[in-house]
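Narrative summary of target 7.
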Amino acid sequence: MRILITGESGFVGNNLSIFLKEKGCAVERVSLRNKWILTKTAQAIIHLAGKAHDTANKSSESEYFEVNTELTKKLFDDFLNSDIKDFFYFSSVKATADTVNEILDENHISNPKTPYGKSKLMAEDYLLSKDLPHGKRLFIIRPCMIHGPGNKGNLNLLYKVVEKGIPWPLASFENKRSFLSIDNLNFIIFEMLNRDISSGIYNIADDESLSTNQLVKLISKTIDKKEKLWKIPSKLITKFALLGDKVNFPLNSERLKKLTESYQVSNAKIKKALGIKNLPISAEEGLIKTIKSFR
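Modeled conformation, tokenized:
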């Protein structure tokens, strides 16, 4: 099986490429920086390339739409005119909701607030508006926060806080968050490639969700550090984050939201499609693997 991947040099692309090669697939990188040509003998294209959410809010809105929307539309049009069977578009749960009060599933009415989320949703809408030729499949993948060895992000920042013995000052915030291990993601994509699954939107997440306080405890236990959880009043922390929006502080409103909000994602639809009860590894197992890689 020959697979085309855009964004192959990124964290997800690199890991997925290695995984697919180990499974016997031929993987070919497609660059969208210049004129591209889709290999006629490929069975699927996995579109990972895109502009990630800039938590520092330094990117212009037009950048998101140029990359996440317009390039995706052009690539999909080429797919429709090719002999390739499957198109995987890596969107995001943020294409449907920036905040979640209950558990997010695919029936949620999309209403993103950020340019990132809007640009992803506009791409989704375009793909879904097109008639798929017989024999072709379209998968819109909406993953939550992906992590794994080699990934740098908020999880790594939290690890550094615990490693340095700095007390976690946001323990007064109670939340539940979904995570996605790169191992579970790789498993799901490979299975989708090789099974008779219907086109559609699929949320992707680990089976269990954890609170940030649980995550701090897990990091502490994994690296043999004493857990330090400080319950500073949440109102005081929120005021400090608002100041960080104006001054270059490590904590601003966007980062505080990412670290403390609840965001639970249902993976029931994809598991039903695959006919499985559980993903290969638990959320805790995946997180421990990532945490150990930081050392």
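The domain at 2-143 is CATH 3.40.50.720 (Rossmann fold).
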